[in-house]
Amino acid sequence: MSAADNRRLLDYLRGHTDDMVADLKRFIALESPTSYKPAVDELGRALVAELAELGGAVEVIPKSAVGDVLRARWNPGPGGVVILSHMDTVWDVGTVAERPTRIEGDRIYGVGSMDMKGGIVIALWALRALRALELFPRQPISYLLNSDEETGSLNSAREIKEEALSHKVVFVTEPPQDGAYKTQRKGVSHYTITAKGRAAHSGADHASGVNAIEEIAHQVLAVEAMTDYEIGTTANVGVISGGTRANVVPAEARVEINVRAWTKVNQQAIHERMTSLQAVNPKAEILVEGGVGVPPFERTPEIAALFKRAQTLAAEMGLALEEGRTGGGSDGNKTAALGVPTLDGMGIVGEGGHAVTEYGEISSMPERAAIMAAMLRERL
For labelling, which of 40, 250, 276, 380 has a CA lying 20 to 30 Å from the CA of 344? Predict the structure, then answer.
């Protein structure tokens, strides 16, 4: 694809910035919390119409517990690219009424504007620009929109895996990290530790008790000591509970732990340490449960090359594109762990995801859509 064609894409998309903003406002208004299937499906119906208008062969994959999954295909067959977005947000229905969408300068503030309805707009307009300028590629393109990413994509994991493995590369429209495409994400593990002791009266019979809170305190210190900033592994005790009354030696206490690691090797090493924990008090017992939840998204030579190509295409359009990494997980972790080269953070630039300050930068939408469109033209 020529540099002139890349610039045509950017010019076209910049000329339709107002239309992109209008679409984003419309999608924000269609609130879609993960937990409320009717709302997610309403957004899904609007997106089905968009995808069909763009010439995609659209399939609605029914889900009972969450919103239906959408899949659109162009030039169906093996190879090519799958674009991956999620329709769900963390915000309940009614939040838009409480916090209406507004524009201040280059920023559009709104519920899910950055995470990730702005990313959906970018993908749709990348496809639209390619069609409008008669630059649509011949290679297979699939667009999968799932409905439960914010709760771990448990109900859409099969579709994500199938689609990724049937394509050569994956583009994820999560927001970038300070404007940078994401080529590495930490993996996530979850654990609970339950300490069991023996209840007793704190005054009349204290000596016969075995204090489960004391035991869990030892375990908290052991877990927190597993954090190693040098290699980027963190073990965080985030929830603690135990005991019944102040005048009773507690018979049980419990902690919940979140672990993050950059590599599978480090993730497995901390898993082995976690599952090898032993009670400090020989009269107490501990039970360690849990394990790996999301594998790390590791930066491979193939992913590095994929980013370098995107950076080169951006430069041809006069756009700067940097590479970054983050401790948070996404569906990109799943596809990268399958060995499929994945570029993440291809969505709208902004800040405040999951916060009341969430916004997207309007000027970034045509720019990021142009980069995606150019990448879709590449023989990957």
Answer: 40
